[in-house]
Amino acid sequence: MMRMIALPIALALAAPLSAQGFTAPNDLSVAAMSGDRFEVIEASGIGATGLWCAAGAYAHSALQAPDNAQLYVVSARAESQAAAGRKAVTYALNPEDTAPRPAVILLMSTYTPGSFLSVGHARTLCSYARSPGGR
Q: I want to staple 117 with a disulfide (CB 3.0 to 4.6 A). Which of 74, 95, 97, 121 is the partner?
């Protein structure tokens, strides 16, 4: 009897963990969408550098993208689809319906669909983009 109760409880506790998705080196959450699209969810105190870091880490680790692959903002900073009440930026490994443009000024790049960096460049930003608690 105890075993029959323990299994549903264990499954219920594990479900939220699997739904959380990927956590980047700077502690930002990343939610998979469709195809190679994914959403990086903002956290207090982390700006564009941190968002690109998380996007690069996810593309490399979860999507197995090489460092020379391009990473595009396909939907600018807006309400998150994965986390209610939070802001997010949607990225993909292809430009979709955007006009590709290099991300020259990182601050503005998350507001501009089509902005892109290489996965490798985005990953190097992780050394500058630590979580607000500082790891």
A: 121
Residue 17 scores a pLDDT above 60: no
CB burial class (10 A; 0-12, 13-18, 19+) of residue 10?
A: exposed
Q: Are 88 and 41 in contact (CB under 8 A)?
A: yes
Residue 30 belongs to what H/E stretch? strand 29-32
Collapse the DSSP code of 6 into the 3-class scheme (helix H, G, I; strand E, B; otherwise coil) and give the result: helix
Lookup: tokens for 131: 């979580």
**What is the model's pLDDT at position 44?**
84
Choice between 71 and 5, residue whose per-residue pLDDT is larger: 71
| 128-134: long-range contacts, CB 8 A cutoff, minimum separation 24 | 128/49, 128/53, 129/26, 129/46, 129/49, 129/50, 129/52, 129/53, 129/54, 130/26, 131/26, 131/27, 131/28, 131/43, 131/45, 131/46, 132/43, 132/44, 132/45, 132/46, 133/27
Model pLDDT, residue 20: 52
